[in-house]
Predict the 3D structure of the following.
Amino acid sequence: MTLQVEVGRTGGPEVMQLIERELAPPGPGMVRVANRAIGINYIDIYHRSGLYPLPLPTGLGLEAAGIVEDVGAGVELKVGERVAYFSAGIGAYGAAINLPAERLIPLPDAVDFDTAAAVLLKGATVEDLVERLLTLRSGHTTLFHAAAGGVGLLFGQWAAALGAELIGTVSSEAKRERALASGFSHCLLSHDDVVAQVREITDGAMLPVVYDGVGATTFVQSLDCLAPRGLMVSFGNASGTPPPFDLQELANRGSLYITRPTLMSYVAANSEMQSCAKAVLDRVADGRLKVEIAQRYPIAEVQRAHAELQARRTVGSSLLIT
């Protein structure tokens, strides 16, 4: 028997329940991973709440790191190997899981389980945003909402190393200090007049690109921060889904572009997923990317973990520990 988090209906944190379930031996091409650390990500809240619908009942969680415990036929991985995953399937919230071997990532010796589980999905998101969706480089000035969150702190380090000038928004003075220490040149409080401050920072030129993972409460503000022909990257809905939008507004605001990327579209191919993961782990291993794990919860406290993340009471990355 193995301990798992299961959701039988959509809703708040209270719908997550711990159950014991028999886990079948891994079939051909499959591997059983005994999880040592499990990453908590905002997409888990979207799955739990029904914003991103899943067939019910369902497990939760996309990201974890652990040890190969058993292998099916045709698998080259060996029992005892250290691995991680972030795009292999739903159900990471648990003690163990069966997954396709081809979607597992071997862990370098320099990266421990906690760090891997805290960085892979968020780091892959950042890699896609700055290297694949748009090649962010020196001379670019950009705005990133929720700069002290798990993705934001990694974005700051990665994008600053590329030479970009970064403006962030945060909800408190304490979070502002964290964002500034992670590569942001300017950090604005989200309840202030962000558009006016961006105009002042850029001498009225505004921005070529804005990254918005907050959603409903920042969507129009993000558009207002763009220069003509600027790009709006709407990659999350932490405050809810933005309202319906008339595309004519893009023309009215200066022929703007908008995209709604999902990480899984960018790492659907195994080769893309592995190269993305390698780019993240290489930066962690050599110190270019530092991971802040500010919250660790026993898996029995999964409801509290979700409540605190959703209420924006966390910074950096959060983990469930089995």
Notes: The mean pLDDT is 96. The first strand starts at residue 2 and ends at 7. The chain has two domains: 2-119+267-321, 138-260. The domain at 2-119+267-321 is CATH 3.90.180.10 (Quinone Oxidoreductase; Chain A, domain 1).
